[in-house]
């Protein structure tokens, strides 16, 4: 199943001409570190601009709950949430840990991204942290 999802992500990038990782590097990486261990994050917490992307991804995956546990549906709902949240961040829809919200506040809207770029980066975030632990 994971191979199918990864293949779909690669195919959609090729067909759409949008690489989610490139979108992340250009628009997200300046605030969200791609990956770090939880112990390292706790040491550097006060110097971070935003939660590490691994923490964001895992927190969203944990909080987006579907009844039938269909991974494809879960991935699609994750993408829809992220795609919208990138341009419409709102306290009413936040899924971050309360301490993260208190420390970092609500992220600023990322303007200028096409729908395809937002979709590509959302799928990249989902797939990048599949089977990765934040320990």
Describe the structure concisely for a colleague.
This protein has 135 residues and is mainly α. It has helices at residues 2-16, 20-27, 38-44, 53-63, 71-87, 98-104, 115-128. Helix 1 runs antiparallel to helix 7, helix 2 packs across helix 7 and helix 5 packs across helix 7.
The CATH architecture: Orthogonal Bundle
What is the percent of helical residues?
55-70%
Overall number of domains:
1
Summed up, the helix count is 7
As for the CATH topology, it is Cytochrome Bc1 Complex, Chain D, domain 2
Order of helices and strands: HHHHHHH
Radius of gyration: 14 Å
Which structural class is indicated by helix and strand composition? mainly alpha
Indicate the overall shape. globular
State the separation between the terminal residues, measured CA to CA. Answer: 25 Å
Q: What would CATH call the class? A: Mainly Alpha
Strand content: under 5%
Q: Can you count the beta strands?
A: 0
Give the overall pLDDT as a whole number: 89
Low-confidence stretches: none
Write the layout of secondary structure elements.
Blueprint (H helix, E strand, L loop, with lengths): L1 H15 L3 H8 L10 H7 L8 H11 L7 H17 L10 H7 L10 H14 L7
Helix pairs in contact: 1-7, 2-7, 5-7
């Amino acid at each position: 199943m994971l191979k199918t999802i990864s293949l779909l992500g690669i195919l959609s990038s090729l067909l759409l001409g949008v690489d989610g990782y490139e979108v992340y590097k250009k628009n997200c990486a300046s605030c969200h570190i791609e990956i770090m261990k939880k112990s390292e994050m706790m040491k550097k917490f006060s110097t971070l601009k935003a939660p590490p992307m691994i923490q964001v991804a895992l927190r969203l995956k944990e909080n987006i709950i579907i009844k039938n546990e269909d991974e494809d549906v879960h991935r699609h709902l994750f993408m829809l949430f992220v795609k919208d949240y990138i341009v419409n961040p709102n306290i009413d829809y936040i899924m971050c840990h309360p301490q993260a919200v208190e420390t970092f506040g609500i992220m600023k809207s990322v303007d200028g991204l096409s729908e395809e770029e937002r979709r590509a980066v959302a799928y990249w975030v989902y797939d990048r942290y599949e089977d990765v632990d934040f320990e």
